[in-house]
Amino acid sequence: MVSFFKQKGQKSKKQKTDEKDQSISKITQNIDSSITTNLDIVKQKTGSSPDIIIRTLKISQNPQIKTTILYVQGLVDNPSVTDFLIESIMKNPHLKEKVLPHEALEVISKDVVSLGGVETVMDWEKLFLSLLSGDSIIFIDGINIALVASTKGGERRSVQEPSTNSVVRGSREGFTESNATNIALVRRIINSPDLWIESMKIGTVTNTDVSIMYINGIAKKGIVEEVKERLKGINIDSILESGYIEQLIEDQVMTPFPTLDHTERPDKVAGGLLEGRVAIFVNGTPFVLLVPALFIQFFQSVEDYYARFDIASSIRFLRISIFLFR
Q: Which residues form a coiled coil (predicted)?
């Protein structure tokens, strides 16, 4: 009796493994030419989540061509999806009656969709990454290629005064949880083409956007390459905050002093970049990392940038003296 249940359990486990392998192989293959098959894969992969919106469109000039738009509710800019995507496809006169599916793909990408950043994808990995980043996906029946339209948006916190590093004299702008907004805040201060940015995805599950920023010609190439190598060497499921990055790339762990600096002030990041440091932006947090960090740097206030050099130096010397003789 015991062996019977054991064999039954092993068989059931094997069946589940085979079904899982078949499911994975089905999802990891290229996009199919059938909209029905593609939608089944999307529903299977996302668990038929209700926030995945599927809109099937009728092209007035050519109802024979089936078109479907997918997007994630809350991650897209709704006016862009409605006005510049859905209505453009449904009412655009370029989609004539005799146009073929592959011709419709080209017409939609070049003439119909009036949004920037329209590109084609053929594999599911890139498609899901774009979909869950706030882009909209366009499927055309009979074509094994999908269109990705940039419609990122949704509710975000506005730029406010930072709750930490408060100053009497200086900027009142603070970083938000959006990488794009944070990078733009620094670009407003440093209007130079030498301000370079490189982005990557870290986290096998979260696929968090991480960007590094530095001024070409001021930051040492060795430091920039070291930062890149350490970030690329991170192998972790999730990055929820810049503190994850800080712990994974720092040199010394057994020390009470921080080895990386963090701030939510764009002016402090700009000052660090002008001194040759590298900034690390992590999407989802208002705290930006600055590397490398020196011990003397933690005796400096952001207001020191705005004071006369003799006054700022005297105040900094006073801070160091209090720390040493206290």
A: none
Question: Pairing between strand 136-140 and 146-149?
Answer: antiparallel
Residue 237 phi/psi, 5° resolution? -70, -40
State residue 225's pLDDT score. 96
The identity of residue 287, as a single letter, is F
Of 53-57, 80-84, 256-260, 314-318, which gets the smallest average pLDDT? 256-260
Beta bridge pairs of residue 195: 215
Q: At 157, is the secondary structure helix, strand, or coil? A: coil
Does the predicted TM-score (pTM) go above 0.85? Answer: no
Distance CA 160, CA 323 (A): 32
Mean pLDDT is lowest, of 233-247, 280-294, 297-311, for 297-311
Residue 157 makes CB contacts below 8 A (sequence gap 6+) with 176, 177
Residue with the two structure tokens 């078109």:
67
Across the beta sheet with 52-58, what order do the strands follow? 52-58, 66-72, 136-140, 146-149, 119-121
Q: Are 290 and 279 contacting, i.e. CB atoms less than 8 angstroms apart?
A: yes
The predicted structure's pLDDT at residue 9: 43
Calculate the alpha carbon distances from 44 to 52, 140, 272 in Å: 12, 20, 47
